[in-house]
Fold each of these.
Amino acid sequence: MQNTLVLILFCLLSGKLLAADPVKYEKADKQVLENVFEALKTKKEASTAELVVATGMQFLNTPYVAHTLESEKEELIINLRELDCTTFAENCLAIARTIKSGQPTFENFTNELQQLRYRHGKIEEYPSRLHYFSDWIYENAQNGAIKDVTQQVCNTPFPLQVDFMSTHPDSYKQLKQNSAWIEEMKAIEAAISQRTMYYVPVEKVEEVEDQLKSGDIIGITTSVKGLDMTHVGILIKVNGRIHLMHASSKLMKVVISEEPLSEYLKGGKSNTGIMVARP
């Protein structure tokens, strides 16, 4: 049975307390979280990046399910039973940060997740969610949750021009039903497209592999017009090489790629490179 619970989320940010926001979850999600906390209780001294990887390992074979965040009303949805590529990486980082805080509770986890998923950590209808992953990287670098290390890895500017959501509103139920949000998304897309961001082109990934680390969260950039990225995952070192741990829509579960990242990327025709977010 699904519960909708208003949790009072207390978090000191610039001396202010966050207001209460609705959190939607099932009892099974809370149990999954408690199981992860129990499994990693001896790792509280590990780095956040190490905890991201350790958390990801706990979710191996979890079913891939798309669109789990979509609901009639925008609210913080917790679904640890079913993951897509973004929710997998996002939940792993939120859990890692919760453990690292020294207070691994469900309430602190929901606060961490909300801070990562929404612009300025505030839920203000559908457009307040960080839909474009370059925007997710930018905003979470601003709030200190991650560092965008892409430029230091490879100083190659990315041709950032996004407008897919506003030009394809029929592909998004919420936009299709609310034309005012299309205009809001246009403004958000315009702001994103003004930014200077960087990427590591596919052909350079193997060359800079020694600068990539386990626990890095990557977005895979795309040649699809109007989009910035089409896939997200967590890097993990396997036998001395960097591989991708991700929720795979092809294999329909969370897996670690059989081939190193550089080879994995060459398997997607629209893949152009990666952006790198370091916890």
Amino acid sequence: MDITGMAATRVAECLVNGVPTSAVSARDRGLAYGDGLFETILVRGGKPTLAEWHFQRLALGVQALRLPVDLAVIRSEVEQQALLLGDGLFKLIITRGESLRGYAMPQQPQVTRILQSSPLPSYPAQHAEQGIRLYPCATRLGDQPMLAGLKHLNRLEQVLARSEWQDSVHAEGLVCNLAGDPIEGTMSNLFMRLDDRWVTPALDRCGVRGVMRGFLIEQLAAQGDAVEERSISFDELLRSTEVFCCNSVFGVWPVVALADWQWPVGVHTRDIQTLAKQVLM
């Protein structure tokens, strides 16, 4: 009950096509083939953070996968449920819906939308304050330019990479492409300070274009500190003066170590942490 004595409305733990349930058909193509997209959205004070960037990426994914989605309906549902959630996380999943056996797309798909809510994650404060150690993952990202950048449901590369360590010493893992060039973390994007400017790996062949990555690129460009997006060699990573990883949930974590290599937590990284904190509060 609220202070008026009326029953308070609570956010549903899971909505499927707007209905409170966790049941999804066994014929759903998201389950069978990973045929769909997802977004993990931080909610603070009843508002989805970085909403513009999340829905811009979702729109690109919908177009690339040819999913007949009404983005206005989805955004309205997210915003309404965010008011009820207050603080927490949403996982928004969009699939092509049900179909018969086989890869062929249904001619008139009935898209499935799933909105799951969960409490805020609890990360150690020292990750942001003192920096993190990266685990050097052996799992490599394969090249697929048609899907590069999208947050699609096929995440087996990330699942395998994250399974490589179980200790608490490493907060994140470095994942490279087939050539051994650094691309991203298992759940984050990478930025490096190289020759007194920020660079971040190009994601035109593999990797996920994180929304925090996009936000920071825009903000830094507006401040006259443009980020260069390009291929980066492993040697360039090692000679960087500052390194950090970022995502739309934890913000920015300085990277201080990878195997035997170490970096300081630099003043440029601290400035970017401030930018990220402002948009996630």
